[in-house]
Amino acid sequence: MEWLLGGLLILALLARKKPAAQDHKLEARIAELENEQELIMKKLALLLTLLPTAALAQQTTIYGPNGNIVGQVTTDRQGSKTFYDAHGNIGARSSTDSAGTTTVYGPNGRPVGSFTQKDRK
User: Fold this and answer.
1) Which of 43, 80, 81, 87 gives 95 a disulfide partner, CB atoms 3.0 to 4.6 angstroms apart?
2) Tens digit of pLDDT for each residue in 48-77?
3) What's the fold here for domain 54-116?
4) Residue 50: phi, psi to the nearest 5?
């Protein structure tokens, strides 16, 4: 009778290991899908920044010395500019008021500085 209980215990332990291995595979697959989803979302965000919309009047691509894209600048109808890095992340924004003062905002939306350009003759 003891050998039967011992055998059942071994079978129970072996059966217990199988789901753990399956769980590990499932967790790895979930992590893989989450990484794929994150990559797709980043590509989509970049694509959306490149698409012209009604609010965008102008878009300029900035190239580095080796010919790679290093960023982009978009200008909306009011003349405000948004500066993007090569990955589509906002680096800065700027807007100019009616007095000619341009305020520059960081990626978090907080002002980082301002300047006024005088007319040159």
Assistant:
1) 80
2) 666 655 444 588 888 888 888 899 999 988
3) Thrombin, subunit H (2.40.10)
4) -90, -20
